[in-house]
Amino acid sequence: MARFDGRTVFVTGATSGMGASHVRGFHAEGARVVIAARNLEAGEAFAAELGSRAVAVRLDVTSEADWVAALEAAGPISVLVNNAGAQHAAALIEDTALQVWERTLSVNLTGQFLGIKHAAPALRKAGGGSIVNIASTMGNVGQAYYAPYVASKWALRGLTRTAALELGRDGIRVNSIHPGVVATPLITEPVADGQPAIGDLYSPAPFAVPRLGTPEEVTALVLHLASDEGSFATGAEYVLDGGLLLGPALAA
């Protein structure tokens, strides 16, 4: 029996990068997957590729009305993976436009808040479940030129812990994962014209594990936390960065 047989898993930002990897991972483990994305056409194409046990819903995570409609369409769920996120062009704080600040926090923080707010009743009705918030190692340190993104991911840590306290007695566990430099388009492709890709700024050579991470490695941790294997974990933060935050490793 697969780990998620008979369960429905709702994944945001689900058509590319880590989100698509999470969808494939849950689907392979027997789940019915709900592919939530702003681009419904892309979501439907992905669902058709997977075949049975896959449906797509349109979701702009910054819209409360979208969350209500998407979760209603999804039906009872057992797992929410708050994966959708947005990065922005590098800029000093004094050169950062207010709309960039507001958009980044709207997607990365408010989007996850709305997911927790509206998924909690469905999870409670199902007798419990799991919420996994995708944060970032930038939520553990300061990072010049990325103030909106850093602030959103730091705040997500507090939101995760608070939700874990509020929902624990309902059998709902809430955890966060803090990936480092993972080989996805968000990292490997420039965010803005004329700027390097974020991955170009982080050579993995000094890491204890001297390479970029893969989406599948993050997915493996998401699956563990969402499954019964992670039943004693809540309010926890899992750094998955190959040692980026540790500092330079000893040379071989």
Task: Walk me through this protein's architecture.
The structure is a single chain. With 252 residues, the chain is an alpha/beta fold. The protein has a single domain, classed as NAD(P)-binding Rossmann-like Domain (Rossmann fold, 3-Layer(aba) Sandwich), CATH 3.40.50.720. It is 39% helix and 15% strand. It has 7 helices and 7 strands, in the order βαβαβαβαβαβααβ. It has helices at residues 17-28, 40-50, 64-74, 98-125, 147-167, 185-188, 215-226, and strands spanning 8-12, 32-37, 54-58, 79-82, 129-134, 172-179, 237-240. A 7-stranded parallel β-sheet has the order 3-2-1-4-5-6-7, with helices on both faces. Helix 1 crosses helix 7. The longest helix has 28 residues, at 98-125. The protein starts with 7 loop residues before the first strand and ends in a 12-residue tail after the last strand. 43% of the residues are buried. The mean pLDDT is 95.
- How many domains would you count in the coordinates? 1
Indicate the radius of gyration in whole angstroms: 18 Å
Overall average residue pLDDT: 95
Strands, total number: 7
Percentage of helical residues? Answer: 25-40%
Q: Can you tell me the CATH architecture?
A: 3-Layer(aba) Sandwich
H/I helix tally: 7
Rough outline: globular
Poorly predicted runs: none
How much strand content do the residues show? 15-25%
Largest sheet: 7 strands, parallel
In terms of structural class, how would the helical and strand content be classed? alpha/beta
SSE ordering = EHEHEHEHEHEHHE
What's the arrangement of strands in the largest beta sheet? 3-2-1-4-5-6-7
Cα(first) to Cα(last) distance is: 43 Å
The CATH H-level homologous superfamily: NAD(P)-binding Rossmann-like Domain
* CATH hierarchy, class: Alpha Beta
CATH fold label: Rossmann fold
